[in-house]
Amino acid sequence: MIDYRIVALEPYDQKVGELVSMLEHTRGVTLEEVRDLSIDELDEVPEDEGNSIGALLLHMAAIEFVHQLISFEKRDVNEEEWKEWKVALQLGEEARNSIKGNPLSYYLKTLNDVRENTLKYLSDKQDDWLLEEDQWGNGAAYNQRYLWFHVFEDEINHRGQIRVLKRRLRT
User: Fold this and answer.
1) 31 assigned to some structural domain
2) What is the CATH number of the domain that holds 151?
3) 37, 66, 69, 97: which one has the fewest Cβ atoms less than 10 Å from its Cβ?
4) Band of pLDDT at residue 47, cut at 50, 70 and 90
């Protein structure tokens, strides 16, 4: 059952625990949305050349993975990681052609594996870490809280797309 409270989850520091609560709530709603989808439903691509539900789920995992690197390792993807995650990060035609034929369990395992690493990393962080700042290559400042807000913001956005795709499947 989904918990509709934002609370400081244990064993995390107060604000980090609240962030984890938001990440987990967001994921719980996403998982409920895709529960019981078939391979065909996961692979369906809309006529307007959008992305399949499966590709969107893999994209969610890819975004979180990249944010782990930026946030916890202070780096971008390396060549090997780029080869693994490029299609899911960029979506589009290559994703439409290659992200298909996988059962829901494949996407759920990928999402879960990435999330387990996020939670492991976050368990070592204190609240003041959320305010640590850095800059993008263009000079724009960001802090850790923003990076992780963006992870669930991205997931919520793509979950909206998933809902639209599911409605189209039913018509």
Assistant:
1) yes
2) 1.20.120.450
3) 97
4) confident
